[in-house]
Amino acid sequence: MVTEVADSESASGRKWVPRGPPDDLVKAILEAGAWEGGIHTLEGLSETAFLRPDGTLATSAGFDRSTGYYLAPGCAFLHVPDAPTQTDAAAALLELEEVFVDFPHVSRSHRMVPIAAILTLLARPGLMGNNVPAFVLDAATRGTGKSLQSDAVAIVGTGRASSKMSWPPDPAELEKVLGAFALQGAALVNFDNVASGFGGASLDKCLTAGGRVSLRVLGKTEAPDLPWRAIVIASGNNVVLVGDMSRRALVSRVESPLENPEDRTDFQHPDLLAWVTEHRARLVRAALTILRGFVVAGRPSQGLRAWGSFEAWSALVPAALVWAGGADLMACRPEVSGTIEPEKAALLAVLADWPRLTAGEPTTAKRVIDALYPADRMRGGAPDGFEDLRGAIEEITNAKPGFPPTPKSFGRFLNKIRGRVANGQRVAGRSDRNGISSWWVESADFAGRSVADRPVAS
What we know:
The chain has 458 residues and is an alpha/beta fold. The protein has helices at 2-5, 23-32, 86-99, 108-123, 146-158, 171-184, 201-207, 272-278, 280-296, 311-323, 334-337, 342-358, 365-372, 375-378, 387-396, 407-417, and strands spanning 9-12, 15-18, 44-46, 50-51, 57-58, 62-64, 69-71, 134-139, 164-166, 188-192, 212-214, 225-227, 231-237, 249-254, 425-431, 437-443. It has 16 helices and 16 strands. The strands form six sheets. A five-stranded parallel β-sheet has the order 9-10-13-8-14, with helices on one face. A three-stranded mixed β-sheet has the order 3-7-6, with no helix packed on it. Helix 4 packs parallel to helix 5 (146-158), helix 4 (108-123) crosses helix 10 (311-323) and helix 5 packs parallel to helix 8. The longest helix has 17 residues, at 280-296. The radius of gyration is 27 Å and the shape is globular.
C-alpha cells in the first residue's frame, strides 16, 4: 500500500537509491486504522454486483464509496433493468427456484430459504450495520443434498463453492474459529455436517452484533473489536438448535421418500454445480432483479411477521420474495413453525414435573438429582412417571443416557432458565448465605413475590 502512493529512498554515499519503505513506517500506517485526506476504509470485497443501502445497484468494477466495498467482478454480469416490474421479479424468482428443483423440500417456504441466502449475499453490503440470520439446511437422512445446496448458494453469491468448516463443539474453539473468519473479512461461513447442537454464545453474538463483534482470536489473549459481515450457513441431518439459536435462524428441510437417496438418478440437473457455474450471470441478474424491483416499487408491506433483531433484513429479503410471488419463508423460523429446541423442551419438562417431584417445596439441584436417580432406579427400577424429565435433563446437560448429571451442571441449567416463562409458569430460585441455591416452580403472575406468598404450581 505504501509503495503505491509514495516512493522510498535511502542515501548511499552521495546519491539516493530506491529502497523498500521502513518497517516502522509500514507498521504505523497499518495500526492507524483510518486516515485523513481521502483514503477510504475498505469494508469488504465482492466478486458479485450488489445492492447499495439506497437500493441502487453497484455494477461497476472498483471501489464503491457508498458501501466501502471493492467490486472485482468474477464474471461478466448481465444488465438489470433500472425499474424491474413485479412481473419481471416473478420470472426472476422462477429462475432461482430452478437451482433447487431437484431437492425434496418439505414445502415451498423451505425452498425459499436457500434463495433467501443468495439474496442476502447480494444485499449484504447494503445491510451493513444490520443483522442477518443464520441459514440452516436440514435433512432427514444423508444423501439428500444438504451440502450441495450450500455450494449452489455460494457459487451464485460469490463465484465459487465455499470452504466447509467442521462444527467445533467446544465453545472456546468456536469463538476462535469465528474470530478467524472475522479477521479474513469472510462473506460466507459454511459449517458442514453439523453433528452436535448448533449454536452458542459466540455465534449468537456474531448474528446480532450489528456489524462489529468482540471475539478472541487464535494466539492472542485479548478479544479485539472486529467487523462482522459474513452470513452463516449450516447443514446437517436433523440439526438440533441450542440456546437462542432458534430465534436467530431459518431452517430449510428436505425429506426424501427414498430409503437410499444417494442412489437417485432422475435429476433435472445431474451436475448441479457445473450448471450453476455456467448460468451464474443469469442467476445473479435474477436475484438483483427481485431486490431492485422491490425497492423501486417502494418496498410495499407484505403483511409478514416482524422479526426482532433482524428488522432491516426481514423488511427486505422475505418481503421481496413474497412480492415476487414466493412463499413466506418466515414460516421456517423454528419459533414460528413450532419446533422446540432442547432447552425449551427441558424447561417444559421441569415446569410440568418439578412440583410433583418436590411436593412444591424449594429444593436444591442435588436433592432433585438424588430423587430422580435413586439406587433402585440405577438398577433398572419400574417406571415412576419422571422418564420425560430425566431424558430432558440428560440431553440438556450432555449426561450419559440413563445416568445422572452432576448437580453443578444441572444447577447451571436451572440458573439459565430462571425467570423464563412457558405455559404461564416459570422457574424461580434463591441462594442462602452459604451460596446454596434452592429452586421452585411458580405462576408467572406472581413473579417477584416472596416464597411464603407464592402459589405453588400443582
